[in-house]
Give the backbone structure.
Amino acid sequence: DHALHPSAHPVMVDRMNAIEYVTALLAHRITDLARVFGTDDPRAITLVPVPSSEVTAETIETARFRTLRLCRALAGVGLGNVAVLAVQRVPVVAKTNNRGPRRTADQILAGLARTTAPLPKSGAIVLVDDNVQSGNSIAAVDRLLGATRETFAFAVAVTDACECKDAVKPRRFAVEYDE
């Protein structure tokens, strides 16, 4: 039983319902969340989904694009507008299926293409990912967009090797570039 839990009973959260759970959890806290992203107006936020490995310009609506689903769900409860600003040039081997070394932010950036959707001239840009492990995908999309102003990141999960004693505590993390 926790104040943030959106239900009166336990809920099993898995890959199938995580987006709906997170959206329900945040639906009544949109104003607070907007402030985290530096604005008092939730409509001033642009949610930018980080493309999964199979999302190309041709497959935006048909590929398994969980982050786009998450962005649309968040926009549906009043948090911002959705803009697909980045896609893969060609499908790549998913990092979770790849047994080799992780791709660096520069390698990921080389495989990304900018869509024709315009970059909003003002308001907060929030890069949305479902599970951040290294931060390299977020860093690559940030670079692709030009990093012309402060960009925020939102993730359903941040997978880290360090143990965490308080999973509910908000955390900040920095994405560093390979330079």
